[in-house]
Amino acid sequence: MPSSFRFDPNASPVASTDRAERMIDPGFGRVFTDHMAVIRFSDADGWHDPHVTARAPLQIDPASSVLHYAQEIFEGLKAYRLEDGGTALFRPDANARRFQDSARRLAMPELPENLFIESIERLVDADRDWIPGGEGALYLRPFMFASEVFLGVKPAAEYLYMVIASSVGAYWKGGMRPITVWVSREHTRAAAGGTGAAKCGGNYAASLIAQKAAIAEGCDQVVFLDAIDRRWVEELGGMNLFFVLDDGTLVTPPLTGTILPGITRDSLITLARADGLTVREEPYAIDQWRADAQSGRLVEAFACGTAAVVTPVGNVKDAEGDFAIGGGGTGQITQRLHQALNAIQRGTAPDPHNWLHRLG
User: Which end of the chain is less packed: N or C, by CB atoms within 10 Å?
Assistant: First the structure.
């Protein structure tokens, strides 16, 4: 490992036989690797003490700032085992820049892009054996929180940045399948001027009550409308949305500061346009969604994100009337875009946009 990162190997790593058993059907976010990456920050010393060490519980003071004022951000990306035997990250530079954007919004220090990427490289290097084969991947979770011990409303002066890793399979049980979503009429995810475009834990915490209502209605996910008019479709609890019209045009809500600028979203827009499809980033109303689905003008809808990649939306449940999209299954364009993205991520197709960050 480069000298910039100290490596303290785990003295008691998981035995290879136990690791192999855990990776047979890992699910999502429950099987963790042996190590974690850590970098500290203080106003006095800046970024310092970068190291990879054994994954272990944290001991923090009960007056740590994050526990009271929620200065916390995170990212999500994956390392893939390639067909040629190598490994690669997918667009880590984009995650690094979004991490900086989130930090800026929450008055936190911005981690330099090279340190962000190197922390992930060093962790993957240490835990390469945890990358599943087949359709699995190593999910990486960089995060940062305010660790200064004080009670008082101000930006903290000390922070802890960490990366942990998890062997994962399909996000949805049973693999890629059409989901049913619930339209939240009572709760919104974000408003103009808020933290909607930042990837901070508070956004997800605020969405959970609506997600709980969705589950109670027999749905997989919640879809949020805008905070002002309660009319314009924004995003799911953790994924961006696309709508496919009968002429092949794709429509997706614009990035106006209230929804997360998804890296998978951006990648799919690029792939769709390269494939000759028209993509419009424009507002799309819930009433229009229903009318287009009922008339047949809307033939497909899908959600996307790092965890689930591409997920078809088959049915929408709403207090003002339920409706199905197309035949309620997976549409051709949804499937085509998913296959194109997956092929690049796993190194089985050309990478014209240089998205893969190879690790060897």
Answer: C
Q: What is the pTM of this model?
A: 0.96
- Is residue 115 within 8 Å of 38, Cβ to Cβ? no
DSSP secondary structure letters along 286-342: HHHHHHHHHHTSEEEEEEEETTTEEEEEEEEE-TT--EE-TTSS--HHHHHHHHHHH
Which alpha helices (H) appear in 24-128, and where do they start and end? Answer: 66-69, 92-105, 113-126
Contacts of residue 23, Cβ cutoff 8 Å, sequence gap at least 6? 31, 130, 132, 136, 167
Query: Is there a single domain that holds both residue 146 and residue 42?
Result: yes
Q: Which domain holds residue 123?
A: 6-168
Query: Side chain identity at 147, as an amino acid letter?
Result: S
Cβ contact 39:110 at 8 Å: no
Helix (H) or strand (E) holding 272: helix 263-274
pLDDT in tens, 283-333: 999 999 999 999 999 999 999 999 989 999 999 999 999 999 998 888 999
104 token code pair: 């800026």
Final residue in a domain of this structure, among 101, 135, 168:
168
